[in-house]
Predict the structure.
Amino acid sequence: MSDKSSSGSSHSLRSRGTIGVSSVAAGGTTRKPPAVWTKAEETTFLEFLVLAFPSSGDGGFKMPTFNQASINLNEKYPHQRGAEKTGIVFKEIIPECC
């Protein structure tokens, strides 16, 4: 294949110069810090799900269950590290089969 095939294209895969780290960092996209789980928090969360399992129905746990698990965990451990552990975070870490 010819090197000149993309010379007029604005979609070339070749680099057009160096990228400064500061320009990438200033791009406006920031990531939230990850949630940091202690063994005690993991145990509390799983114990809550075990108790809630009978009411989960055939479709698995619903968002109200995950939201209540979040409230339960935040009340028991008010000084958590990392990102806030919300119902959405809980739902993402539990596989669809549960």
Q: What stands out?
A: The radius of gyration is 23 Å. DSSP finds four helices and no strands in the chain.
